[in-house]
Fold Periplasmic copper-binding protein NosD beta helix domain-containing protein.
Amino acid sequence: MTWDASTQTITRIWDFATNFDALDVAPRSGFDAAFDDVVDSVNAAIADHNSKFSPTYSDRAAAVAANVPASAKALHVMTPTGERITFVRNTRGSAGAALTTNSGSYEWMPAVPWMVTPDHWAENTNQGTTDMKTAIQSAVDYVEDLSGTGVYLSGGRVNILNANYLTSGEIRVNDHGVHFYGVADDTGSRISNSSGTSNTILFRPDSPLTGGTLEGGGIHNITFWNTHSGSNPSAGAHVEVDSTARVQIINCSFYNHYRGIKFSGSGQGCTVAFCHITQGSNTSTAVTAGSAGIYVGRRQVNAGVRTPALDGSNYYTECNGLDIIGCEIISNNYGMQDCIHIDSCDGVKLIGGHTNGAIRSCLCLAPAQDNISFSDFHAVGHHFDPLPGTTQDGVTIEDFASAGGSAMRDISFTGCSFSGASRDLMRIVMQCKNITVTGNNFKVAGDHHVVVNSADAQGIILTSNTMYKSDQDAVGNVPAIYLAAGDDIKVKDNVIDTGTRGIQFLSAATGVNITDNTFSNMTETDILPPDGVPVGTVIGANKVSASQTVASATTVVLYPGIISFRFTGTTTVNTIRAAATGTGPTIPNCCWDGRVVTIRATSSFTVSSSAGNIRLTGGVDFPMADGDRLVLEYDDTDNLWYEVGRSQGKHVSTSQVTINNTTADVVGDYAIATDEVHEWTVMQRSSGGTIQGKWHVTVDDDGTTVTGLVSEIHDASTEVAVTVTDNADGTYTINGQNTAANDKYFVARLDSKTEWAN
């Protein structure tokens, strides 16, 4: 006999578990035959012990029919899936009476508080067919009854075994801290609901109307199916969390109910993480209104409960503090109206994950009533993936309930991706305040990437986003960003690539600021303002498709998004286009209050100060030459462009003018333009050619007077003086006063004409 093996065997004999297992030792022969006899004897002793103190029955029916020995302190029942569940004598009254034997005289309850299963109350004879609703509810009631016993301070744990449990209706949790646990895969723990109108599991306190709440609870690693056939489920959810805080729903899958998960006025700290929700496999050909993968909604309460909002004759509170993390929500066929629908909230975060399909939108933010709180929604790193041809919009922020007084505010989308909507990828068409859309990627929209269309939408910021391929339906030059109405809308640092129009805004959109955006591959125009741009509009420097080079013409077009233009040609410029008329929207409105542009001349032409809508300083036309700059600002009170500054490059004459004067005092008359400077050298010579005096003369015209500065270079005869006289007609005269008839004469040379910056 091998004593090492014997020692191992004897150790197993003294396993003080509730049940002793028979020894699993391979038979031996020859010298070890005696050992085999010992094994057989031990196994017989174990079987005798178990029959007296912890018998095992092949199924529940066998246990119910048995006369369990009075000595037995525990018993075991095999489930149809081959798992063994353990009972001990009942000490918890009616809540613990899971099994009766001996013609009903013995009652048994689950042996271990953290290993309670529905199978303790009923046998799941035919998986997915046997109705286990009462058994599941009994398991919940039992763990709730453990609250405060020292086993659990609150609630308890219900284990869903590796099987399919059918329920014909709702399982109700109305105590704190109840958790459901499964085995964490789609072929493992499953609960199937055959009702098309009831919840599968409901967390709800006994008195939510008067402010009752639950604290804690959860569902982990369980798959939920709705097996209702025919039409779509029209009510209910797989899991509803009502007036309950700190519920965790983690690593679960939900299929084919009206709603996957619903939160009704729930408290702080609820989490849905790493769940998969799919609806549509059992549906008809028409979507059911209100259906959603996750629905976050209000809760009716009595007046005075948690600062409620009145809607008609009823009061409601919002859902507080919910995190949705890493979830995938997919609508097949006509399974969902929205992947996620929120009708009230105060603090919801959507972090990571993926929404796909649905009929209306991947995410719908739509207040259910006036004045209910709707604030602090933040999406980070989520993929909004509407299905082209099926899903209308990616994100919809819309007032479907005509809740005109609802204060929706403080909403953000950061680092998300949007792709493939039949209509718009983001639609903001209701009263709201402070919506920030930053660092997102928008790709392929039938119409717009972003729409803002509400007079009560205020404080919308679109910044650092990438937008690719708008207007894929090609049904009328639809802009990537369409600002139909709203106030204080900033569009900055975005890249808008491929489509027809880039950004269009209407006169009802006030306080629009479009700056530092980059446009490429737009087939019509980059920025299209309305006729009569609202006060407060700013269209700053943008990198646009339109050229910065403009041919001078009687009426010129200065495209929005450019602040400095190079002018070519020689035609006099009278007017800068003031409205989007004439040749159509490909030539947009160029004028709005406060717009400032710089005209940079690359040739010689004139800007008129009176013939059109341009007014220059002094009312004098500006003959521009290469290198000149003219800065204009538009004033919509009289619809005119006013000069606010100019600069002039240095222009040197290519030829010099020399005048010899031997008989008269006058050297010569010369015309001079405004802000032009002439440089002269004047010399006095004798008849023999000796230079007797030399003067440097600077002549300047400031638009009103001509002044001359004369500096003497050499000592000269006191008989001679040089002066400059303003003729008050845009000309001046240089005088050399020859006071003695001593055959002296002057040589005057115009060295340069120079125009200097003011």
About this structure: The mean pLDDT is 84. The two ends are 116 Å apart (CA to CA). Residues 693 and 714 are 5 Å apart (CA to CA).
